[in-house]
Specification:
Blueprint: H1 3-14, E1 31-34, H2 39-56, E2 60-64, E3 73-79, H3 91-99, H4 103-117, E4 127-133, H5 139-151, E5 156-163, H6 166-177, H7 184-200, E6 214-217, H8 222-232, E7 239-242, H9 256-262, E8 277-281, E9 288-293, E10 301-304, H10 306-324, E11 340-344, H11 350-358, E12 362-365, H12 370-377, E13 382-386, E14 392-396, H13 398-408, H14 411-414, H15 419-433, H16 441-455, H17 459-463, E15 471-477, E16 485-487, E17 492-495, H18 499-507, E18 514-519, E19 525-531, H19 535-553
Parallel strand pairs: 2-4, 4-5, 6-7, 6-8, 11-12, 11-13
Antiparallel strand pairs: 1-3, 2-3, 8-9, 9-10, 13-14, 15-19, 16-17, 18-19
Keywords: Isomerase, Magnesium, Metal-binding, Phosphoprotein
Family: Belongs to the phosphohexose mutase family.
Catalytic activity: N-acetyl-alpha-D-glucosamine 1-phosphate = N-acetyl-D-glucosamine 6-phosphate
């Protein structure tokens, strides 16, 4: 590091001292805490983003958001060149940088890191970082701190993309690094055009007139605001937006997280909305769940969560692949041995896993966390992943897309306007509609709507794909959650010895019983999850598992 760079870093970092007694850790959500203590952290993540851009020679993203957290919280996270999350290899540096006590130690830390990573700090080549923020009142000042951090690295350029959903920023980073247009207008155009294409491909005999409107809960966040813009360019969907952010508090008894956990209608809905098809976004529009209010039920809902969204997508894609690979009457065998995989975590309801396996699909499990799901899904030609909370997406390989492109323009198919050509065009449209960088509630919502029209299904018919097994989650207060070590995608306890055998013995007592315990990645607790054929059995099994953790580790459960 030359003297000019050292001087700039010392001067700028001295203006952003870390709050005393605060230690932050970079996780799936980046850094997240009360907005009032994040100025220093966001400044330092600006430095990290600039270094990451220099290292990768690519555009990097920096998003200011706290997603479904309360409005007084905020956060910051990095989008890597692929549009995905920051590589796990850099997370320890992120932690060290956020928590370093003063400017002198910060400069030394950066100097050591750039030497280890062989990053040149001479201003050539330059670094480019796209910035976005959600609608939180703290976002503007934190964005300024990020800009200061970025500009403290010589040659780094911050490009403010304005108020965005988190998936929009990830999409922009991915698009820029692929040499594609990447403005917000381009994002809306791609979604609306690919949605229109899917609707146009629906066979006349399958088409259903979905005149009933879709009511969307925008969580009083950025998603509601952006859906208002998207709505203007959609002509095949009657959308009514509630909790758009003009009134009401962000994430306060609204949003996908609230609806999925509490299983009640969000604020802003009335008895007249009963039995309607409704959807809910979370605060930064990367989670999506559907629901329908039940008549005369004290605000209870029929919940269609991420597991059922995954099942709908998997069913549709399997159908299109089957059409494409049906070679009856085809003189040339032009099929493609596409691998299709569904990726879940242990928290996926067992009924959804059974349903997917019954369809003949390959279902694999990963540890909890989007970074694990996304990485596994990328191993397939088509990888589909979702968590029950409604966060997930579909990944399609370049090899498959190249084959689909050729298949859709084969003379033998185009002359007939065949079902195979339509299937190829449909999957190509899916690849453009779905956000392959991260889970995206807006693109996911449009794909759900297109498939429901294709199937001719109501939300109630969709919900009948399978019936969820009753489940229960409990927390066990844990002063040392590292005492619990798991394997097999967190479904089996390896340590302490004997705990898994005891859980197995309890689980065997209940029809359709399934149970696991795992250390939380976010809280100082051990989580216990149980499923069984009845609510009472699931409750009892979860309580038994929590008590076993008590016995083996000596802590009290809550």
């Amino acid at each position: 590091m030359n003297e000019k760079q050292r001087s700039i870093l010392l001067d700028s970092s001295s203006r952003f001292p870390p709050p005393p007694g605060v230690k932050l850790s970079y996780g799936t959500a980046g850094f997240r805490d009360d907005a009032s203590i994040l100025q220093s952290t966001v400044f330092r993540v600006g430095i990290l983003a600039a270094l990451r851009s220099l290292k990768t020679q690519s555009v990097i993203g920096l998003m200011i958001t706290a997603s479904h957290n309360k409005v007084s919280d905020d956060g910051v996270k990095i989008a890597d060149p692929s549009g995905g999350m920051l590589t796990q290899a850099w997370e320890p540096f992120a932690d060290a940088l956020a928590n370093v006590p003063d400017s002198l130690h910060l400069v030394q830390l950066v100097d050591d890191f750039v030497m280890k990573e062989n990053i040149t700090l001479e201003g050539v080549p330059s670094a480019v970082i796209l910035l976005g923020r959600d609608t939180r009142p703290s976002g503007e000042s934190l964005l300024e701190a990020a800009k200061q951090g970025i500009s403290s690295i010589v040659g780094a350029v911050a490009v403010d993309m304005g108020v965005l959903t988190t998936p929009q920023l990830h999409w922009m980073v991915r698009s820029r690094n692929k040499g594609m247009k990447a403005t917000e207008t381009d994002y809306f155009n791609q979604l609306s055009c690919s949605f229109r294409c899917l609707i146009d491909l629906i066979p006349p005999e399958s088409a259903v007139n979905m005149m009933d409107k879709l009511i969307v809960d925008g969580a009083n966040g950025v998603g509601g605001e952006k859906l208002q813009v998207l709505k203007k360019v959609l002509h095949d969907l009657d959308i009514q937006i509630r909790n758009s952010g003009k009134e009401g508090v962000l994430n306060e008894e609204v949003g996908a997280d609230y609806v999925q956990k509490e299983k009640v209608v969000p604020r802003g809905f009335a008895p007249a909305d009963a039995d309607m098809r409704c959807a809910s976004l979370d605060g930064d529009a990367d989670w999506l769940v559907y629901f329908s209010a039940i008549q005369s039920s004290n605000n209870r809902i029929l919940l269609v969560d991420g597991d059922k969204i995954l099942s709908l997508f998997a069913l549709f894609i399997k159908e299109q692949l089957s059409i494409l690979n049906d070679n009856e009457g085809d003189r040339e065998n032009n099929s493609y041995p596409a691998t299709l995989g569904v990726v879940q975590t242990a928290y996926a309801n067992g009924a959804s896993t059974d349903y997917l396996k019954h369809l003949g699909l390959e279902v694999v499990f990963t540890p909890t966390g989007v970074k694990y799901l996304h990485e596994k899904a990328a191993e397939y030609d088509i990888g589909i992943y979702f968590e029950a909370n409604g966060h997930g997406t579909i990944l399609l390989s370049e090899g498959l897309l190249h084959w689909l492109d050729g298949r859709s323009s084969e003379p033998s198919l185009t002359s007939k306007g065949s079902v195979q050509q339509k299937a190829a065009l449909g999957l190509l449209a899916v690849s453009k509609l779905i956000n392959q960088a991260v889970g995206d509630a807006l693109s996911g919502l449009l794909l759900v709507e297109a498939i429901l029209q294709h199937m001719g299904w109501s939300i109630h018919r969709w919900n009948e794909l399978y019936h969820d097994l009753p489940s229960r989650q409990l927390k066990v207060k844990d002063v040392d959650r590292s005492a619990v070590v798991t394997a097999n995608a967190e479904t089996v306890v390896v340590r302490p010895l004997g705990l898994q055998e005891a859980i197995n013995a309890e689980t065997a007592k209940y029809p359709r019983g399934r149970c696991f315990v795992r250390p939380s990645g976010k809280e100082d607790v051990v989580r216990a999850y149980a499923e069984a054929s009845t609510e009472e059995a699931a409750d009892n099994l979860a309580n038994s598992a929590a008590q076993l953790v008590d016995q083996f580790l000596g802590f009290r459960s809550s």
